[in-house]
Design goal:
Blueprint lengths: L2 H15 L3 E5 L3 H13 L3 E5 L2 H11 L3 E4 L8 H10 L8 E5 L6 H8 L3 E4 L4 H12 L1
Parallel strand pairs: 1-2, 1-3, 3-4, 4-5
Helix pairs in contact: 3-4
């Protein structure tokens, strides 16, 4: 192997090691596809949970770098899942961004009080999402 190929291989390994993992907790299939496609195009590794119970299980098992949490979820709602994640010492450091159709006055504050680190209302503004991801993940 020549030096040029070796440097290229090392660069690819370093890039892969820096890939951030995002857990998307979303019950709507169309929203899951949209969010997953956007995150993948931005070179994030995407983990997907279809309800709050699965989201809790995956957060504990995978320890993602960030969680995008819908708040209206089956089994365990996003409010409760967020509180449980933030109450767990090994998970509390993970930033959680609420992605929700709850866009009434006070909903943002309620999400932050539940433990979310930020809030995006649906329909999702992709520029806002990208900006918040950069803020939390660098």
């Amino acid at each position: 192997m020549d030096i040029g190929n070796r440097k290229g291989e090392m660069r690819l390994r370093a890039q892969h090691a820096m890939t951030k993992r995002i857990l998307v907790v979303e019950d709507n299939p169309d929203n899951r596809i949209l969010i997953t496609d956007v995150l993948s195009s931005l070179d994030y590794e995407v983990l997907v949970a279809e309800d709050g119970e699965m989201g809790l299980t995956m957060a504990r098992a995978e320890i993602p770098d960030l969680i995008l949490m819908d708040l209206s979820l089956p089994k365990v709602d996003g409010w409760t899942a967020t509180k449980e994640i933030k109450a767990n010492d090994s998970l509390a450091h993970i930033p959680i961004i609420a992605l929700t159709a709850h866009a009434m006055v006070g909903d943002r504050e309620k999400a932050l009080k539940a433990g979310c680190d930020d809030y995006i209302s649906k329909p999702i503004d992709l520029r806002e999402l990208a900006s918040k991801l950069m803020h939390f993940l660098g």
